[in-house]
Amino acid sequence: MMANILTVARRELRDDLRNHWALAITGVFAALALAIAYFGAATAGHVGFTSFAATIASLVTLAAFVIPLIALLVAYDAIVGERDAGTLTLLLSYPLSRLELVAGKFLGHSVLLAVATLLGFGLALGVIEMAVPETRTLAALRNIGTFMISAALLGASFVALACLISAAAKEKARAAGLALLAWLALVILFDLVLLAALVLSGGSATEQALYPWLLLLNPIDVFRLINLTGLGAHGSSAFFMAMTGAHAYSPAVLYGALLAWTAVPLLAAAALFARTEM
Q1: pLDDT digits (tens, 9 = 90+) for 133-148
Q2: What is residue 186's three-state secondary structure?
Q3: How many domains are contained in the chain?
Q4: What does the pLDDT read at residue 278?
Q5: How much is the mean pLDDT over the chain?
Q6: Which domain holds residue 139?
Q7: DSSP string, 39-85
């Protein structure tokens, strides 16, 4: 079983590399990260690398928008694209189960995105380390490591979601539309709805106690929690810290939630694909 999954994953990696996805994603991550870190304080009247906490917070905000979008773009056609191209029947004629096909495609795209994330953001953070002496501490390196690991997991969770969308859609164009809707819902609308509900209801004690747990229903908010709660008020928004600062999230809960956001959509994609008529 594992040999088949790895074979499919290598095929996906070769296709992505042939299409220059890895180079493009790495370049986009590095360029945007350096631009955000250097010009993030331009509205305050100055440019350059500011404090380490503010820099990491800016990178977290950037990653929360860009990584989900790129993950969905890379993998939204994982299944439906093969169907549209007429190669899905051929693939399934080999001694390859549908679960192995989905798992292999997920693994290939996740590895590509993880490597591009580590190289792109790693390059930017390396430049920042040379420019800002305060980043050369053990605590800063720990925060950088946390950011890189959680960013890779965030990418994997959205690759899994893209696989689910691809397994559910009948046409490639519809899968692209569903992927865009998923990005809008999780990146933009989710937090707006929670905030609106709190404002309109007056923010009772019960709602404020429930709010931190509702954030676990969005992998992007879990990613933010993993990184921003460690920075405290120095790096994150006042509202975000006011609503979550008094709540003690254990690393096991946060990383468990991010892993669940990867496992559940992936298993759902495999189950849905297994029942799909060719």
Answers
A1: 666 777 778 888 899 9
A2: helix
A3: 1
A4: 59
A5: 83
A6: 2-275
A7: HTTGGGT--S---HHHHHHHHHHHHHHHHHHHHHHHHTTTTHHHHHH
Which pair of structure tokens corresponds to residue 26? 């790495």
Q: Cα–Cα distance between 178 and 170 in angstroms, integer?
A: 11
Q: How far is CA 227 from CA 33, 140, 249, in A?
A: 16, 12, 12
* CA 252-257-259 angle, 5° bins: 95
149's tokens: 């690991």
26/19: higher pLDDT: 26
pLDDT tens string 144-186: 889 999 999 999 999 999 999 999 998 999 999 999 999 999 9
The pLDDT value recorded for residue 204 is 65
Residue 216, C-beta contacts closer than 8 angstroms, at least 6 positions apart: 222, 253, 254, 257
- The two tokens of residue 263 are 């496992």
Q: Is 128 helix (H, G, I), strand (E, B) or coil?
A: helix
Of residues 276 and 27, the one with the higher pLDDT is 27
**Amino acid code (one letter) for 242:** A
Instruction: Write down the pLDDT at residue 102.
Output: 94
CA dihedral angle for residue 262, residue 266, residue 268, residue 270, rounded to 10 degrees: -170
Segment 11-37 shows an average pLDDT of 81
Alpha helices in the chain (DSSP H): 2-18, 21-39, 52-75, 80-85, 88-92, 98-131, 138-168, 172-183, 190-201, 205-214, 219-228, 238-244, 251-275
